[in-house]
Amino acid sequence: MPRPTLYLIDGYALAYRAYYAFIRQPLTNAKGQNISAVYGVTHGVLDLLEKHRPDHLAFVLDKGKTFRHEIFPEYKGTRAKMPDEMRAQLEQMREMVLAMGVPILEKEGYEADDLMGSLARQGESAGLDVFLVTSDKDFYQLVTPRTSVLTPPRSGEPGVVFDSVKVEERFGVPPEHVVDVLALAGDSADNVPGVPGVGMKTAIKLVRTYGDVASVLKHAPEIKGRLGEKLATHADLARLSLELVVIDRDAPVDLDLEAVRIGGRDEDRLRELVVGLESHSLMERIGLEVEGMELLFEIATDRPALEAVANEIRAAGSVTLDTETTDIDPTRAELVGISLSVDGARGIYIPVGHREGPSADPATIREVLGPVLADPAIGKCGQNIKYDLHLLERADLPIRGIDCDTMIASYLLDASSRQHGLDFLAMRHLGHRMIPISSLIGERRGGQMTMDEVAVGKAAEYAAEDAVVTHRLRDIFLPQLDEKELAPLFREVEIPLIPVLARMEAEGVAIAVERLKALSRELGERSIALEKQIHEAAGESFNVNSPKQLQHILFDKIGLKPTKKTKTGYSTDASVLAVLANEHEVPRLILENRELVKLRSTYVDALPRLVNPRTGRIHTSFHQTVAATGRLSSSDPNLQNIPIRTDEGRKIREAFVARGPGRVLLTADYSQIELRILAHLSGDEHLKQAFAGGEDVHRATAARIFGVEPDAVDGALRRRAKTVNFGIIYGMGAFGLSSRLDISIEDAAEFIDAYFRSFPRIREFVDETVSRTRKEGYVTTMLKRRRYLPELNDRNRQIREFAERAAVNTAIQGSAADLIKVSMIRIDRRLRDESLQSVMTLQVHDELVFDAAEEEMEPLVRIVRDEMVGAFEIDVPLEVDTGVGGNWLEAHG
Q1: 694 and 666 in one domain?
Q2: In this structure, which of 180, 437, 753, 851 has its CB flanked by the most CB atoms within 10 Å?
């Protein structure tokens, strides 16, 4: 029989998490008041009640300064003051928690950590299983066979339970040694000093080797080098830090099981509070009826109705539009209908391709609405309007004057979110639940209809809703873009890029199908040969694709040491195999085989299936709303993931060919663009001089770091300098650099220190970027693109350090993304203005690919170079490398 449960919520930690989860687009009520914290806490508590059904529950809060401030006044001194907008929600949060029937526990002079630790101990003694609801790693020290840490549930997920096995897997030491690691490494979130220069990985290694803090300090004289010196010099700091991080399990608080027993909620007060929040999702969750958005629509099929629509659009000066089609692939879809909204109050549906029912005459539509749609002075808005552009262009209804895309607007306002679909945005911003497409065409599993089979009246309501909702979202997003200084980026870069990408997608790229078929046979034969080698090296035959059988071979038969555990046993993922590959041939061969199989299935066999039967080419889809840095991404195929440094990857690129006789491929690639942007943003004179003088920047870097003449830099030193140059962009630390260069962590740390001593402004740029981002909540690119990084204030060091790397990377890589987008817009305009037959077809990171007429090569190269170099003015010269060939590999060189 399961034991009764006690759940203790780290209240302020949950509130902070909720507040910063919406920092990019704060939730507000009609008065403009921020409700993010109270909204998130309410959902969090409801999630806990529904998913875990606790027997006893309490919401535990800090109150006042504690004994830790007495022994170390600087304790938590580096923490930013609680934002005023969050503080204003605290009383409402308390009322909401109490209305849900959850008691609040707090005691003057004690942190929630100490109260929860003490209550957990008492709960165990009372025969309860205890769960500490928090994402704070400090609580790992409290884990016992009867007490676990539960990360707060997220939408759709119940949260992760950390028992002693999972704590050791995540933290590297068992629960009883968590405090020792924290004391040695320190904790910047709480301003716990630790031992200067000792990071988390080093602390874990020390504790694993010697035991607790006292034992580590006792053995300090035996530890060679700077590490031993640091431990000896700062032993008192380590002992002080230990006092600060140990959670008090004997705080003066008594566990009253009746007081924390789950009881009934105060329905009337809860309804009153939720209505006051004006949160539709919370209203639905507690059973309040949500009023839907009033939706008016009409169907227009005859000439008078179409003329009335056209006149209405002209008078308004703008229109929101959407299309209904037979396929999600715009290059294969057929147009079924067009929906329009002029005022956001009603929608108009124009059926054109339904199998039954009334339909507008295509010729009349082109005659009456064509001039309006093609008028650049009349603004056009859509949700993912690039899709509609394809369909209407093929229907001889070209669109000009695009001035808004609500999907892109949502993305610019919150680039880290993956939720920019219309259904999500309608619920979040309008409290409106969209008509599900499944109600029209059925579920995928049950055999869907296509939209042309749906009755006109039913399709009209659905389509008109899309146009009306998009119009209303536009009215919400445009002022927000202005307020956050994102409007110029939106209007001058992202919106003009839409038709450029649509033209690239429509052009497509040719591939050599027979070449890919031959490559598929070759890779298949190599995979069979590799499996044979694996079996021979293992000493028996087994299914190389079975994780369970591979676990047995690696860890039981061969006796390799496992590094990671999962629910089904020890992990055999790529990161584990990469480590084990240094110890035995089997994991190395498994990795090689997996890469072959992946390339064959993802590209070699998949590319021929993507060839459009109408055009004979592949039409990749480019996405503006996926990468948080602002980079473009692509799908069907994903061009960014084709490897360039392997023979197999090069052979795949070789299959991308010019589309016919008299044509070739031209590639244009920015040379070291991210390092050039780093030189510009940091203002480092040494790096700027290297680029200005046309030097080999990696050789120049090595010369400065190692104090030698450039001519004395050999290949090995240059490779080291290149690794650290690019490592700075991606936030690589000593641990990452040590594994890349196969050197000790101490040597890697010294190498990084030498780099920053040689290029001091780069160190300042990195520190200033992180500091400014932490203060403002977001990092910006050269064109003021924003990426919000609330994770910079997370109490988890790993999450915080990831955010620090992301801040620096986004400033650099995001600016490079802005640059190439501007270049694409400029090049596309020149190609059309000068009526060239050459076309831009692909974009991969810093590279553009053109399908070019051979006789146009000279003017094309001139245009491409001029526009790429002239797109931005920065403090170092921009350089573009070009290449020409019959296929992508040959052109890239």
Answers
A1: no
A2: 180
Judgement on whether residues 609 and 747 belong to the same structural domain of the protein: no
Calpha distance 247→179 (Å, rounded): 9
Q: What are phi and psi of 28, to 5 degrees?
A: -135, 160
In a domain, 237, yes or no: no
Closest-CA residue to 680 (of 843, 873, 817, 515): 873
- H helices present in 485-605, as ranges: 487-489, 495-507, 513-538, 547-551, 574-580, 585-599
Whether residue 596 is found in the same domain as residue 696:
no
DSSP, collapsed to helix, strand or coil, labels residue 788 as strand
Cα dihedral value 331, 332, 338, 340, nearest 10: -40
**Cα-based distances in Å from 699 to 77, 673, 696, 717, 876:** 43, 17, 5, 8, 18
| Residue 668: strand pairing partners | 848, 882
- Do 724 and 835 lie in a common domain? no
Domain CATH code at residue 532: 1.20.1060.10
Q: What letter represents residue 184's amino acid?
A: L
Contact between residue 587 and residue 577 where contact means Cβ atoms under 8 Å apart: yes
Give dist(CA 378, CA 319) in Å, integer: 8
Q: What is the pLDDT of residues 851-869, one digit of tens each?
A: 999 999 999 999 999 999 9
Give the phi and the psi of residue 224 in degrees, each rounded to 5: -75, 160
If asked whether residues 822 and 724 sit together in one domain, one would say: no
3-state secondary structure of 626: coil
Which helix (H) or strand (E) segment holds residue 880: the answer is strand 880-885
Q: DSSP state, 430?
A: I
Domain that holds residue 472: 296-484
* Cα gap 645→640, rounded to integer Å: 13
Residues 732 and 794 reside in one and the same domain: no
User: What CATH number has the domain bearing residue 68?
Assistant: 3.40.50.1010
**Is residue 528 assigned to a domain?**
yes
From the first residue on, what is the mean pLDDT of each consecutive set of 10 residues in the chain (893 residues)?
89 90 76 84 90 92 78 68 87 92 90 92 94 91 93 72 90 90 82 82 88 86 83 84 87 90 83 80 71 82 97 97 95 95 96 94 97 98 98 97 98 89 87 86 79 94 96 94 96 98 97 95 95 93 91 89 76 86 90 93 94 94 95 91 86 94 96 94 93 88 84 85 81 78 80 86 93 91 94 78 92 97 98 97 95 97 97 94 96 84
* Secondary element (H or E) of residue 826: helix 797-833
- Length, in residues, of the chain: 893
Q: Which of 151, 146, 180 has its CA nearest to residue 164? A: 146
> Using one digit for the tens of pLDDT, what is the confidence trace for 81-139?
788 888 999 999 999 999 999 999 999 888 899 999 999 999 999 999 999 999 888 99
Phi, psi of 701, rounded to the nearest 5 degrees: -65, -45
Cβ atoms of 240 and 71 closer than 8 Å: yes
- Tell me the two tokens of residue 780: 């910006």
Residue 637 lies in a domain: no
**CA 402 from chain center: how many Å?**
27
Q: Are residues 747 and 791 in the same domain?
A: no
For residue 385, the SS3 value is: helix
